[in-house]
Amino acid sequence: MNPRLDLLHPYPFEKLRKLFAGVTPAEQRPIRLSIGEPQHATPALITQAISDSFASLSAYPSTTGNDALRQVIAEWLKKRYALKSLDFATEVLPVNGSREALFSFAQAVIDGSKQDALVVCPNPFYQIYEGAALLAGARPVFLNQTPENGFGFDWDSLGDAYWARVQLLYICSPGNPTGRVMSLDEWKALFALSDKYGFVIAADECYSEIYFDESHPPLGALEAAQALGRDGYPRLVVFSSLSKRSNVPGMRSGFVAGDAKVLAGFLRYRTYHGCAMGGPIQAASVAAWSDEVHVRENRALYRAKFEAVVPILQPALGTTMPDAGFYLWVRVPGGDDADFACRLLEHANITVLPGQFLAREARGVNPGQGFVRIALVAPVAECVEAAQRMARYLD
Ligand SMILES: Cc1ncc(COP(=O)(O)O)c(C=O)c1O
User: 130 CA to middle of ligand 1, Å?
Assistant: First the structure.
């Protein structure tokens, strides 16, 4: 077997199962706020489009996807981010969810002949970035996001010698778990580093459509590149998904968009990888990217939950609204996130994810330590009940 498999860390939910093994939950209805799985209903326009296109199952789909799908995605991107130019034929590719693409991208981008390749990841982070780097033969290095740096990025905390070895950098905005949206100034600094050292930026934007103010959608990476007057999208690829935007995590549909040269290489890799998107999923994706009504309704549901839950948790936990996304990243009283999660299960039958499971120790600290991630994915009433039980327990 590939010895690199042994480098992979257990997934956070495996760690959670182990942590909870000896805990007896309170005798109340269980409420699970640990996993970031959307639970709103899938819009009928999507299921209808799938059942209308079963005939396409009789043909092999192409790895590039149909022109119709790539055109709809390009149009969506242009509208969403006011982009002046984006070529659907060379700057867009459909993928089977952003997770698949975030993983396979590293396999296509990393030059394994260089022994000392580095991949930069945020910390805390989505664990796929680390696994992708390790299996591609690179070493992950972490940029800590802490209250001290406003959960932003201290680019200077990595020295010149490190940056020179970086081949790929993952970034997540809006972030999981912090919900933080990167500013234009942060993008400016990051693009300057990429220009200086030549690394590729993988911008994970799978939470871009979950935000609270309809008039202020989160800034996107392609939008930032355009606003900063860059010539196209050099070494920049964004990863987006229908899973959260359209409540179809089971459909496995997303896209990558950006640097045509990088995408040409990625397409070559994908042809061998065998990850073409099936015809009915492509048809359903066209329907989903063409409609914003269901997306606004979806956002309204999340907004209602945050508006109800944050004031309940604020007095005991100091909880504030995130910039975007559907997580609360909360500092726990006492500072022991694993113990806090166990006590919450024991006293309130609520499951949350200890922050240390979402981060690695870097520069002497695990920046997830002392935090828990609360995913507001359950229905509004359930989220409110969970918040009330938490507040009672903390009282
Ligand atoms: C930060 C982040 N990126 C990517 C994904 C993958 O989403 P999907 O593969 O459904 O697009 C997730 C899923 O939870 C996530 O939290």
Answer: 14
